[in-house]
Amino acid sequence: MVYKLSKMPKHKDSKKSIMMATAVILAKYGLEDFSVDQVVKITGFSKGTIYNRFRDRENLLLSTAAYIHEENFVILKRALNNIAANREKLIFIFWYLDRIYKEMPELYRAFYALSSGGSDKLRAKLLLMQSHSYLQVVEEVLYCGIKNRNFRAIRPCDVRKVASSMLYSNDMSLINGDGGSYYLRILDIFRV
After folding, report:
1. pTM
2. Was domain 14-189 assigned CATH 1.10.357.10?
3. Model confidence over 9-31: pLDDT tens digits?
């Protein structure tokens, strides 16, 4: 759900309301123009309440990025449970990542603002968090495919390389805007 920069509905969970407001502000203004005062204005919570829930500005930003990522990852995992074939699961993962990027650009702008600004420590945590979880789910699908003898051309010792190549090529195709077909080439190479 996309919220406008006016008063947001208060949730019983003030931490969630604060993170949602932070994501909206980051998406609209970027990290450079982000301020906790904007979060106060949108949520109606005092600065004291915000800093009671989050240690500091960096903790608020990192928690918001984790929240954005976790929300999308839960949806992805739930959808994968409804797909039987491993090749279709892989195709769905990359279709989903592309869909989020295109249909919810404010989330990616917020995540990008966080991962491209801030401290090196914050950037490293964000990139590691995002890449590790998607890498893990692609690896799970590949291992399952090997076990079920769907992916005969992939050796178990190469799963991490194949999964990393697929994710990296998908990221590059999103950045270049060329239709996101690189991961399909990797599927074909490995006869997945």
Report:
1. 0.68
2. yes
3. 555 578 999 999 998 888 788 77
